[in-house]
Amino acid sequence: MRNDETLAALARTVRAARQRKRWTLNALASRSGLSKGMLLQIESARTNPSIGTLIRIANAFGVSVWQLFAAQEDAVGAFVTLNIVGARVAADASTARWKAGATLSPIDGMPVGIKDIMETADMATEQGSPLFVGWHGKRDCAAVARRLGRGRARGRARL
Fold first, then answer.
1. Which tens digits make up the pLDDT trace of 37-90?
2. At 8, is the secondary structure helix, strand, or coil?
3. I need a surface site. Which of 15, 34, 131, 156 has the fewest CB within 10 A?
4. Quick one: 3-76 is in which CATH superfamily?
């Protein structure tokens, strides 16, 4: 999917969420701390918002950033396989560590996406090919093992 299509999908998601709540742009601006002009640009797909901006919008709606993206995942097709339950469990554990002041690292809880061509122990690795649909390698390739080995020690949540 092209970037402009992704921005258009995000624009529709934000606008629809705001309209479901029957909020004006001013109401969302007040709740998110963003300017009305910035929100108007996002809702008209004229800007590519930063993750920080998306976090502020999601917090204003009382949802996770993932929920903003999930609403458009069918159109965007960014992920082949998702482990939402596993990511949520890891995120909840990270939240508890942050609240207790016992984080594993400054990036404790950061989600990690892994390209579908890299073999993973707990998810199918289909490599974008019908020949590999449903194929499970039952192990992590070296790059994933290195990334998640350090990632697990730092509290990363894998999507």
1. 999 999 999 998 988 898 899 999 998 887 777 766 666 667 777 777 877 788
2. helix
3. 131
4. lambda repressor-like DNA-binding domains (1.10.260.40)
